[in-house]
Amino acid sequence: LGIRETLTRTLLPNTTYYLRVASNALPVNSVGAYSIAVFRVATPPANDNCSGAVTLAANTPVVSGNTGDATASTGFTSCGIGNANDDVWYSFTATGTFSTISVVPGAGFNPVVQVLTGACGTQTSVSCTNASGVNGTETVNITTVPGTTYFVRVYDFAASTPATGFTITLTTPV
Predict the structure, then answer these.
(1) Residues 105, 135: contact at Cβ < 8 Å?
(2) Phi, psi angles (nearest 5°) of residue 82
(3) How far is the CA of 13 from the CAs of 45, 67, 70, 131, in angstroms?
(4) For residue 140, which phi and psi values (nearest 5 degrees)?
(5) Were both Cys, which of 8, 46, 67, 172 would link to 86 (CB 3.0–4.6 Å)?
(6) How far apart are CA 60 and CA 154, in angstroms?
(7) Nearest residue to 117 via CA among 92, 88, 87
(8) Using CA atoms, how far apart are residues 54 and 169, in angstroms rounded to an integer?
(9) Are 54 and 89 within 8 A, CB to CB?
């Protein structure tokens, strides 16, 4: 009679599970209507927050990224472009006075790229761009101070994020 039961378990992919539904009401074997809802609990990526930023190395192969299951970061300077409800974070320490960050999207992804300096939570925005639109590569060229740590925040412009992800690279003159 309106009683809701919740069962939470960690399950393995590609495994069949059976769920028995029974009544503890009298008489035994009584009948009644019921419904079952199954939900996947999202696990955010490791770099979902600034404190888990993935380190980018200059002039090395691309790093794959994805904002699927990412959540909105709070307490950070917004650049006012799009919906940052699915941001992921990267960082690098400048080795020269100029750096280029390139984000190449997968199909349907519209990347917004924000570069910040300072400690997580008290950062200052250095640059923010979304010049290329859906499927367009975003390239950010910034003047950097050697030895300074920069954070790169990437998210999809739209409120929903495609599952295709992106690649990100950091280049500096040698």
Answers:
(1) yes
(2) 70, -160
(3) 18, 21, 20, 39
(4) -115, 120
(5) 67
(6) 19
(7) 92
(8) 12
(9) yes
- Are 109 and 166 within 8 A, CB to CB? yes
Phi and psi, residue 111, nearest 5°:
-70, 140
Of 26, 100, 109, 121, the C-alpha closest to 66 is 109
Terminal-to-terminal C-alpha distance of the chain: 71
> pLDDT tens for residues 47-58?
999 999 999 999
Closest C-alpha to 132, from 105, 168, 162, 161: 105
The 10s digit of each residue's pLDDT in 74-121 is 877 778 889 989 999 999 999 999 999 999 999 999 999 999 999 998
Please provide the DSSP assignment of 27-76 as one string.
Answer: STT----------PPP---TTSSGGGPEEPPTTS--EEE--TT-----SS
Q: Where are the beta strands (DSSP E) in 118-163?
A: 124-129, 138-143, 149-156
Could you identify the residue written with the tokens 């690098």?
92
Give the tokens for residue 163: 């599952």
H/E stretch holding 112: strand 111-117
Tokens representing 82 are: 């799009």
